[in-house]
């Protein structure tokens, strides 16, 4: 069955029927999300900076997310970078500081390609915000995508520069300029040096120049970004200008103050909290969308979505289960064949919808035994929301 994985609606119909899905409700705040107006539209949170996510049914049409369905999360306008003049600086605790042109990045190092899921730490903040109000982009469940990232291993570049034995953290500085009340800042992040090389068979961080076989687009960081498999999107720095080798973490605002799990705005709490690095297990129902009218008389209902394992080497999604009775009983789903750590798995099933059902619930179970939680603790900035996803439907 899974060999002929076909995620289109047509493929599913061929595989055996689909329940009546009589239109998508719009703007139903009470049901959890505003359904997109039309399949093919973006859910555009802001134009400048560009913050957008795809409608959920389109997101799970393929294991590899096409660039035109891949969410964009930027804190400022895209910087304009002349590819001919571009140089990546590699400095800090190195024997040989480097200044690498795009030609050198493409010609002087082995080229690699890795598939990895990128997800914003704020994915699902909209739901999280219903627990208690949270500021920040109200992402629905589409700030996630799985792509083929091409480029060079960060570890190869560090070896060429001769990183010294005191090196502990690698800083990434972006070339964008972000206006904050405190003044203009750059986007930046850092990762522990251990994360630069391959990790128990999973790829380490890469200095990336292509996405799904094409040069990076401006929105995704042209000409160069980092991609750090298993880590939240914020550590995959776009428009990369500098790699700095240090004995301590990056002092950048986005490493030290933002992207932390906090209960309050107390600066001491923030200073003491660690930077979020890996993403947790998650699963989301993408079809049907919240507020869809479904008819129990319409036959089995197609339910489909994505499931992300915790971002740890060797850990994959083992099972995804769906409930039509609020989580009392669980039904198995069919998983996409591709199963890699640091990457999502798609899933789908057809369920009989009991008359008068209020909705559907999904939960994922990973190979290390992690079960997606029923609820999660609220945090000030609304990060890492991964409670079992519920979709309210209207019986038709
Ligand atoms: N330079 C720079 N890098 C950045 C950002 C940014 O605003 N500036 N946003 C980060 C965040 S929060 C996320 S989730 C990812 C989003 O990557 P994408 O827009 O390619 O999907 O980029 C990260 N890298
Ligand atoms: Mo993000």
Q: What structural class should be given to the helix and strand makeup?
A: mainly beta
Label the overall shape: globular
Poorly predicted runs of 5 or more residues: 1-39
The gyration radius over C-alpha positions equals 21 Å
Please give the number of β-strands: 23
Largest sheet: 5 strands, mixed
Order of helices and strands: HEEHEEEHEHEHEEEEEEHHEEEEEEEEEE
End-to-end separation in angstroms reads: 31 Å
Please tell me the overall pLDDT.
89
Bound molecules: ligand MTE, molybdenum atom
Helix content bin: 10-25%
Sheet-strand content, in percent, reads 25-35%
Q: Helical region count?
A: 7
Can you list the strand order of the major beta sheet? Answer: 5-4-13-8-9
List the helices and strands and how they pair.
Blueprint: H1 9-16, E1 43-46, E2 51-53, H2 56-59, E3 72-73, E4 88-92, E5 98-100, H3 102-107, E6 111-119, H4 125-131, E7 144-153, H5 154-161, E8 169-180, E9 183-192, E10 206-211, E11 214-215, E12 225-227, E13 240-246, H6 253-256, H7 267-272, E14 282-287, E15 293-294, E16 301-308, E17 317-323, E18 331-332, E19 334-335, E20 345-351, E21 359-366, E22 390-392, E23 394-395
Molybdenum atom (MO) binds next to loops.
């Amino acid at each position: 069955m899974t060999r002929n994985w076909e995620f289109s609606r047509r493929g599913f119909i061929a595989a055996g029927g689909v329940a009546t899905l009589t239109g998508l409700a719009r703007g139903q705040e009470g049901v959890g999300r505003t359904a997109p107006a039309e399949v093919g539209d973006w859910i555009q949170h802001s134009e400048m900076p560009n913050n957008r996510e795809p409608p959920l049914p389109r997101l799970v049409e393929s294991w590899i997310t096409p660039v035109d369905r891949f969410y964009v999360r930027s804190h400022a306008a895209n910087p304009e970078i002349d590819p001919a003049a571009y140089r990546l600086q590699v400095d800090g605790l190195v024997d040989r500081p480097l200044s690498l042109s795009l030609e050198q990045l493409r010609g002087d190092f082995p080229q690699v390609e890795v598939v990895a899921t990128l997800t914003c730490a704020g994915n699902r903040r909209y739901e999280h915000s219903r627990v208690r109000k949270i500021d920040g982009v109200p992402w629905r469940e589409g700030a996630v995508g799985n792509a083929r990232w091409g480029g060079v291993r960060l570890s190869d570049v560090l070896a060429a520069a001769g990183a010294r034995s005191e090196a502990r953290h690698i800083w990434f500085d972006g070339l964008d300029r972000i206006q904050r009340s405190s003044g203009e800042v750059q986007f930046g992040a850092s990762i522990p040096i251990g994360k630069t090389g391959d990790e128990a068979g999973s790829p380490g961080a890469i200095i990336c120049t292509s996405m799904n076989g094409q040069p990076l687009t401006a929105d995704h960081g042209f000409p160069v970004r980092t991609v750090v498999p298993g880590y939240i999107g914020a550590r995959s720095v776009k428009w990369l200008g500098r790699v700095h080798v240090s004995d301590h973490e990056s002092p950048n605002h986005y490493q030290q103050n933002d992207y932390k799990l906090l209960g309050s705005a107390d600066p001491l709490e923030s200073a003491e909290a660690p930077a979020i690095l890996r993403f947790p297990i998650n699963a989301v129902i993408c079809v049907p969308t919240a507020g869809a009218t479904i008819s129990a008389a319409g036959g089995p209902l197609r339910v489909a979505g994505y499931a992300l394992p915790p971002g740890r080497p060797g850990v994959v999604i083992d099972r995804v289960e769906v409930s039509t009775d609020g989580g009392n009983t669980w039904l198995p789903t069919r998983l996409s064949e591709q199963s890699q750590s640091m990457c999502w798995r798609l899933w789908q099933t057809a369920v009989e919808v009991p008359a008068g059902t209020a909705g559907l619930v999904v939960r994922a179970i990973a190979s290390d035994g992690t079960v997606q939680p029923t609820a999660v603790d609220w945090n000030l900035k609304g990060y890492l929301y991964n409670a079992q996803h519920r979709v309210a439907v209207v019986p038709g």
